[in-house]
Design goal:
With 173 residues, this protein is mainly alpha-helical. Helices cover 76% and strands 0% of the residues. The chain has a single domain, classed as Ferritin, core subunit, four-helix bundle (Ferritin). It contains 6 helices and no strands. The structure holds magnesium ion.
Length: 173
């Protein structure tokens, strides 16, 4: 059985993952309507990944005999002035998520809940990747500047991104 304190914190994290999913779906919709279909594809895959993150926590809470409580998802922005602005928002958001995961990790340690701490290891590594990817794309978009052809080529590249089910969901635990 999981402690009420950890259960509440995981329910908060589930909500944060759904908010992330909503944010990236909104970015995907925005860039779709701006004609950047590759960037839109990248964000729509990001949307699926965030839903998967929520599902990992949901499955875990159920496995521990906890209760999942789905809370309202707050509104997200709907427009960005450029692809660079969207990826800067992405990085800032992922840094916040990293802080949330770290806080949850610290709580699991203080509550001596080593199962939860272990479950969070995957998320700790995942956040390193999320931040690195956003940083990389920000760097490239800064180099691209207002070069339309270079932006077109990046858009083509991001169109090739495909969704992979995150490993904790593949093993369904
Ligand atoms: Mg996430």
């Amino acid at each position: 059985m999981i402690s009420p304190k950890i259960q509440d914190a995981i329910n908060e994290q589930i909500n944060a993952e759904f908010w992330s999913a909503y944010l990236y779906l909104s970015m995907g919709m925005h860039f779709e309507s701006e004609g950047h279909s590759g960037i839109a594809n990248w964000f729509r895959i990001q949307f699926k990944e965030e839903q998967a993150h929520a599902e990992i926590f949901i499955n875990y809470l159920i496995a521990r005999g906890g209760r999942v409580e789905l809370k309202p998802v707050a509104a997200v922005p709907t427009t960005w002035e450029s692809p660079l602005a969207a990826f800067q928002d992405t990085l800032a958001h992922e840094e916040k998520v990293t802080a949330l995961i770290n806080k949850l990790y610290a709580l699991a340690e203080s509550e001596h809940d080593y199962a939860t701490r272990g479950k969070l290891d995957w998320f700790v590594s995942e956040q390193v990747e999320e931040e690195e990817t956003a940083q990389n794309l920000i760097g490239r978009l800064k180099l691209i500047g207002d070069n339309g052809l270079a932006l077109f080529m990046l858009d083509q590249e991001l169109a090739a991104r495909t969704y992979t089910v995150p490993s904790p969901l593949q093993s369904n635990n």
